[in-house]
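Write out the bound-state structure for pyridoxal-5'-phosphate.
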Amino acid sequence: MIQLNQFFEDDKKYIAGTYNRFPVQIVEGKGSICKDAQGKEYIDLGTGIAVNTFGFCDEEWVNAVTKQLCTFQHTSNLYYSSPCIELAKILCERTGCEKVFFSNSGAEANECAIKVARKYAADVKGIKEPVILTLVNSFHGRTVTTLAATGQDVFHKDFLPLTKGFEYTPANDIEALKENVKKYNPSAIMFETVQGEGGVIPLNKDFVDEMVRIASEKDILLIVDEVQTGNGRTGELYGYMNYGFTPDIVSTAKGLAGGLPIGATMLFGKVKDVLTPSSHGSTFGGNPVSCAGAVNILSRIDNSVLKGVKERNELIINALSGAKGIKSITGMGLMLGIETERPAGDIVKECLDRGVLVLTAKTKVRLLPALNIPVDTLIKALNVIKEVCVG
Ligand code: PLP
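---
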């Protein structure tokens, strides 16, 4: 215990104070179960915020990553290397995009998406200072530009001035969308199909249809931020696939490499050749170890895994809807937000005490379990959540 307190104190002393950590030190994990320093076990319904796609230390993934690690760990982007080419090819074949730029995080994948949209506006339309319309309550990252894209003032304050060129329109409000498109004449509209950090709120189909209609009429690029919704999380490979349209740019990260840092920006038809030598780059982007992990993850997210995501979604909804203390459930697939009568923060703490890791999103309890979480493990965790929600 003395050792653990020292550990927490050292963390506080030496690590920048950006995180409110729970007093738990995770020391190992396998599948959907992890252990703390005292040997207490937890069922993980958070997956490191939608990162550990097939849970902790999935054997096939470990083998793929280790094999690459023992072959070569990195080379600069001045030379060819196979894992990133293999990964880009899979992404193109499975989405219809034509080129991919690799980076290291969601924010970086979005930065690239924004740069491509701006360069397309300059190259093709001669617009020097294009506007990108994003949605109120969105979240796109923490760099100064992706903060500007994020439609929530709470993230902006203290970091002004932000990058210019972003305007905001409320999600799921078609009239406001039409007005704002008229007012700002945007070159691109950027959105999440399910607003994750904003409280797990899916976009309505008619709102998305209208964005697609307006975008096609006015040659506005559609940028979909699939950092959280991507890679099987919603029950389709990418969240936009639930809505039946083809975007121009898709960014993804988090679960793509199953637990290693990666970002990918997928470029469809119109914008596929916007990036030219030296217009963008990244030292670690396309890192062979991360890409080997991603090739393994992506090639395993097949129809049977996606079906499993939908089945687990139904199981969760059936178990929790109407339960005492639970007001509503929003989201898609294995990206769910539970509105509870008791404060979400209290539920998260009590679940932790009882050996279940869950997250919050605004005022909701958020679940982002592994896509292959065993059903009996999931049921066990849901029983704990139900009991805790009653209070
Ligand atoms: N976009 C969305 C939709 C996200 O949910 C997040 C992170 O939560 C980001 C971007 C930023 O990703 P990262 O933390 O990898 O930079």
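---
The chain has a mean pLDDT of 97.
Residues 53 and 258 are 5 Å apart (CA to CA).
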